[in-house]
Amino acid sequence: MFYVSSSTRQIAKTGSKFPVLAIAVLALVFAFGLFFVGYDQGHLFSIVQGAEAFDDLYIHELTHDMRHAAGFPCH
Ligand SMILES: [Zn+2]
Questions:
Q1: Cβ neighbours of 39 (radius 10 Å)
Q2: How far is the CA of 73 from the centre of ligand 1 (A)?
């Protein structure tokens, strides 16, 4: 004679409520975006273009309206 017993188990999983890794990644994206739009005056392109990048200001001109909307002074 066989007895079949069934039981259920509950597993409570506790963890951090804040996704620290996601927040860190988003903070890095935000910091790079802020640098890209607000402070880069040819610094990124100067890596490959040289000193001319500080005169051409491609990123500045590309994001000009966004810079004004964000409150960065430029002219
Ligand atoms: Zn402007």
A1: 9
A2: 7
Provide the H-helix boundaries in 13-57. Answer: 20-34, 43-49, 53-56
Rounded to 5°, the CA angle 73-33-62 comes to 60
Q: What is the pLDDT of residues 21-64, one digit of tens each?
A: 999 999 999 999 989 888 888 888 999 989 999 999 888 889 89
> Taking a C-beta distance cutoff of 8 angstroms, is the pair 70, 37 a contact?
yes
Ligand 1 mean position to 74 CA, how many Å? Answer: 5
> Using CA atoms, how far apart are residues 30 and 32, in angstroms rounded to an integer?
5
- List CB-based neighbours of ion ligand 1 within 5 Å: 74-75
pLDDT of residue 29: 97
